[in-house]
Amino acid sequence: MYNDNRVSRRRVLKSTAAIGAATGIAGCLGSDQQFLTIGTGGTGGVYYPLGGGMADILNQELDVDATAESTGASAENARLVGDDEMDMALALGNTVQLAANGEGDFDEEVPLKSAFGAYINHTQVVVPEDSDVETLDDLEGQDVSVGAPGSGTEVIAEELLDWYGLSFDDIDAERLSFSETSGALQDGNIDAGFWSVAYPASSIEELASQRDVRLIDFPEDDLEEITEELPYYSVAEIPAGTYPDQDEDIANPGVTNTMIVHEDMDDELLYDIVEAIFTNLDDLEEIHQVAGQFEETVHDGPIDLHPGAADYFDDNL
User: What is the Cα–Cα distance from 262 to 167, expressed in whole angstroms?
Assistant: First the structure.
């Protein structure tokens, strides 16, 4: 199978049956090629095109059949990877931590490791331009999209509303994907929507080009307290001009996205996967600019790096 020679890691992935037994990979294609599945999110977010770009890279660099699949995002992805139904997936750091610890909506510890910390997600809460909502506590009694069921956005919406003294029972909570949230705001069917996503989000860009909207600017004092009480959040900022008619910087809570794998994934297979991705970051950045953050956030995931990934970063970063 694999040897310890790190000089040329990009090899044909042979001995599929042995690797599959170690990693829980879904299946194989022929006798010497295997499937790799990458969990992403809704088509209106960043996970989906980014995962598709990584799948393309893996197909070019390794002898695999890699595909990116649209999912409900973070919480669902953690469960899918933990159950060996997907090989790797993107997920928000707070959701990953809850899953690994068996907390929140996770009844037991999910056997996950980090392949790498990827990039920062910004909590983007969008309301109509003429809305009276200034902070999250103003959302009481409003129709609000809190993200797709099982998504990291839903987890963050619940956490932040709780910090402001609200629960989903205090709002009319709609569980919509990013694209559905954009459409509902455009049509006036909801009063606000949560996005936990890197900027610029295509679904927000499309919305802002068709209706006057604005992003909630979190007060500095609130952000300081949020990041102190919930340390996986950081103070983040969306620069002015990111979206149509956005004239000012927007402060918000940020969370690091993490590429997760099952803790039993084969070390050398993951080394090759990570190498293929990180030696082609320029190509990935053409798909979305957040790939430019990857090298800075490698170690920022909330759980331990998988040994195969740690070996690659020890050798090369």
Answer: 32
Q: Are 102 and 109 in contact (CB under 8 A)?
A: yes
pLDDT of residue 12: 34
| pTM score | 0.74
- Which residues, in sequence order, are CB contacts of 314 under 8 Å at separation 6+? none
Q: Is residue 119 scored above 90 in pLDDT?
A: yes
Q: Among 182, 208, 206, which Cα is nearest to 195's?
A: 182
Distance CA 254, CA 172 (A): 25
Cβ proximity of 262 and 23 under 8 Å: yes
d(Cα 259, Cα 92) in Å, to the nearest integer? 9
pLDDT band of 292, cuts 50, 70, 90: very high
8 A C-beta contact, residue 317 and residue 298: yes
